[in-house]
Structures are given as structure tokens and as C-alpha cells.
Amino acid sequence: MEYKLIRSRRKTLGLEISKGEVIVRAPLRCPLREIERFVESREGWIRPRLAASISQTEAAAASHLSAEEIASLKQEARAFFAGRCEYFAALLGVEYALVTVRCQKTRWGSCSRKGGLSFNCLLMLAPREVADSVVVHELCHLRHFDHSPAFYADVLSIMPDYREREAWLKKEGRTLLLRAT
């Protein structure tokens, strides 16, 4: 069974079902064998809850946003992205020209050669740390207009768990994009 593993300073193993995903929380030094046995032993509990969670996720995709809801998301996104760009630009030591927000069907963000940053308002429906990862990604393009190892080194220097956030967006993002079509 597939699951997302989150290690922390906790003392016990724990399970969570969220947005069609099984999340296992484990102590930092817990052996992987023990975690796998734990998940297998709880399979009877996991399967029905996972099926219900997947149904809820699919229902969310079927719930389209109205024009008013999209306008509200854009307004929220303008304030959010302005603040987050300012914060992360200072950490990276880069400058940008302006921040715009759109409701796009395929992109989460973009960066122009003139320093303009654009973000998808649908990121307001994602966890804030995922939206932050898109901000850092686009700001790093101000230094590297590619996806080179140097680009990812900059991204990871600011956000070491970037790959996890990127994976969430790849897995759950389509559901968000469907809400605006």
C-alpha cells in the first residue's frame, strides 16, 4: 500500500487519511520495517477510509467555482503573493518588478525576463506551504532562467522540503485546476 511518510520527534506511529492519501507519521529513528508492518496491520482500517476520502476528493473536482468565488480567490491571492514574494525575495537576495494573479488552467506560476511574476489564484485552495513553494520556484528563476542543478540548489537552499511540496501539487493540483474549468 502506498503512503506518505512524515518523520518527526513524536514517540509513536500514527495514521491519517487526507485528500485521498494515506499519511504515516513516525518517530525519527523508527525502522522502515516496523512502519511497513504497522501499515499492513491497519489495512482493514485504512481501505474504507481511503475510499471515502477519494470520493470526497473527486466531489471537490466536480464542484466548480463561480465567477464570484474566483474573484474572491484572486483578491486573497494578490495580498498573499505580494507578502510572500517580498519575504522570500529578501531571503534569496533577488528583486522582482511586479506580481500579478490570474486564474489559469495549466500553470501555477511564471516569471518573465523583466522580473514580472504571475501566480494562479487557485493556489489559495492548496496548503500554504505548497503556494510558498511556487513563490520560491518563480523567484529562483530570476537567477536561473532554466531548471538546472544550480536552479534547484537555490530552491532547496530556501526550502529543503521543496520536492514534497512539488509532489503534492503534482498529485492534487489537477483537482484544483478542474474547479475553474
How does this structure look, described?
This protein has 181 residues and is an alpha/beta fold. The chain contains six helices and six strands, in the order βββαααβββααα. It has two domains: 4-62, no CATH class; 67-178, 2-Layer Sandwich (Zincin-like). The protein has helices at residues 32-41, 43-62, 67-92, 128-140, 149-158, 162-178; strands at 4-8, 14-18, 21-27, 98-102, 109-111, 116-120. It has a three-stranded mixed β-sheet. A hairpin with a 4-residue loop joins β5 and β6 (116-120). α3 crosses α4 and α4 (128-140) packs across α6 (162-178). It is globular and about 55 Å long.
> How many discrete structural domains?
2
User: What is the correct CATH architecture of the largest domain?
Assistant: 2-Layer Sandwich
Q: What's the helix count? A: 6
**CATH topology-level name of the largest domain:** Zincin-like
Outline of the structure:
By secondary structure, the protein is of the alpha/beta class.
List the helices and strands and how they pair.
Blueprint: E1 4-8, E2 14-18, E3 21-27, H1 32-41, H2 43-62, H3 67-92, E4 98-102, E5 109-111, E6 116-120, H4 128-140, H5 149-158, H6 162-178
Parallel strand pairs: 1-3, 4-6
Antiparallel strand pairs: 2-3, 5-6
Helix pairs in contact: 2-6, 3-4, 4-5, 4-6
Please describe the structure with a list of short key phrases separated by commas or semicolons.
single chain; 181 residues; alpha/beta; Zincin-like; 2 domains; three-stranded mixed sheet; 6 strands; globular
